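Tokens for chain A. Residues wanted.
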């Protein structure tokens, strides 16, 4: 279940200044970014397309109702929750990145997606190298990649529950 709380609310388009990293140095017990209708969060210039990293020692992070233009990286033991989000292809195409990269096995990290749209992404939707990922009621469609267009899983545990996985293509 995705926890609820208070956090930063976005409307329209927000460009994060520098690559956002939540880790042991983050002085918060919980981080939540919530978007209103049409809210987009873009990776900052000079971040190589990485929008947000959840690393070792981070508090739980929840993103809700956002169009995300850049890669999310989950490499620590905290929980990462995404609900009702979608990914845009602009920054991902420019840097040939999958939308979501998960390698959180060292600390038992967990990534949960609910109602997330991963569509038309040029370098794949999901890459899991460790940790646990649960994908519910989501769409992984029309993605392209050299390996694992919808999902490349070479470690960890992944569960797909009531998902549409269709028209993905290995190129």
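Reply:
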């Amino acid at each position: 279940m995705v926890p609820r709380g208070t956090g930063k609310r976005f409307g329209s388009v927000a460009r994060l200044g520098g690559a956002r990293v939540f880790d042991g140095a983050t002085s918060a017990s919980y981080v939540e970014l919530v978007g209103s209708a049409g809210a987009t969060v873009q990776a900052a210039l000079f971040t190589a397309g990485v929008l947000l990293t959840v690393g070792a020692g981070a508090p739980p992070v929840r993103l809700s109702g956002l169009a995300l233009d850049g890669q999310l990286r989950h490499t620590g033991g905290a929980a990462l929750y995404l609900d009702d989000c979608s990914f845009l292809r602009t920054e991902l195409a420019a840097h040939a990145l999958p939308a979501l990269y998960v390698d959180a096995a060292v600390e038992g990290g967990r990534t949960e997606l609910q109602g997330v749209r991963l569509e038309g992404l040029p370098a794949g939707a999901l890459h899991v190298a460790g940790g646990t990922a649960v994908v519910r009621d989501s769409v992984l469609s029309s993605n392209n990649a050299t390996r694992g267009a919808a999902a490349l899983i070479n470690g960890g545990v992944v569960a797909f529950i009531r998902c549409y996985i269709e028209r993905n293509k290995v190129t």
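The first strand starts at residue 8 and ends at 10. The two ends are 36 Å apart (CA to CA).
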